[in-house]
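Ops channel
N.P.: pipeline sanity check, posting one input/output pair.
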């Protein structure tokens, strides 16, 4: 009898959401993927919430600094965070959902300063100052490559450093970088360029906590919902709403 009640207790712990509770997600400003200051929540936010809705799961998004997002996933206080790419370090404390989007990371620069620059190898970037965002997956990669990096908490700071010529480059997702430029420097957009060759292309997913109650089952349900969105046209509709005005649309 004692073993029976222990089993029941463990089953209850595994139930992902009790009545009235929501799945806790965390993210940060990353337009056009995530918007923290508007009813237009962003491409990733809308896709993630719609995928959960497809399988009748209610979720809420809390906005935190990127490093805090990863910490909350690691300690189990949040189910997941997005958009994230798979790294060996992250796989120690998190699982990853099916890919939501294929990201292309490039270097942004001022044309008047760099001409029509294109990426070849990390060796060519040595000695140049590059702005980046703290907590991003590429920190270890660039450190190992011996690049001179200038990290800040937000993407806004990075592109401003290029405009103010405090750095020569800013590394960012292609769509995110152009969205930032369009918002911050709409009349100076023609002054900026980005490398036509990405230094990295990878799938972006939701990073899921291994410690969150019922996390593995929730992730499986999320993947089912995501697949349904791709099949019923909702994914494409969300994409067009956010991406139609971007100068590049890559998948």
């Amino acid at each position: 009898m004692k073993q029976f009640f222990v089993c029941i207790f463990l089953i209850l712990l595994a139930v992902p959401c009790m009545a009235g509770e929501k799945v806790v997600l965390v993210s940060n400003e990353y337009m056009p993927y995530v918007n923290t200051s508007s009813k237009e929540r962003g491409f990733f936010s809308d896709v993630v919430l719609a995928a959960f809705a497809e399988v009748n799961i209610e979720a809420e998004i809390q906005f935190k600094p990127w490093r805090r997002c990863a910490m909350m996933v690691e300690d189990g206080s949040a189910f997941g965070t997005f958009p994230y790419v798979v790294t060996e370090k992250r796989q120690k404390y998190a699982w990853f959902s099916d890919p939501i989007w294929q990201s292309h990371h490039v270097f942004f620069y001022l044309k008047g300063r760099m001409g029509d620059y294109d990426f070849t190898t990390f060796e060519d970037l040595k000695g140049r100052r590059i702005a980046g965002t703290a907590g991003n997956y590429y920190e270890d990669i660039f450190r190992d490559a011996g690049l001179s990096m200038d990290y800040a908490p937000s993407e806004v700071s990075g592109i401003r450093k290029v405009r103010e010529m405090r750095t020569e480059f800013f590394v960012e997702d292609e769509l995110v970088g152009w969205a930032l430029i369009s918002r911050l420097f709409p009349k100076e957009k023609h002054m900026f360029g980005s490398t036509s060759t990405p230094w990295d292309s990878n799938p972006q997913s939701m990073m899921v906590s291994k410690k969150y109650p019922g996390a593995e089952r929730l992730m499986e349900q999320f993947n089912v919902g995501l697949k349904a969105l791709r099949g019923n046209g909702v994914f494409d509709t969300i994409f067009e709403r956010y991406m139609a005005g971007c100068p590049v649309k890559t998948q």
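N.P.: looks fine end to end. Residues 215-232 form the longest helix (18 residues).
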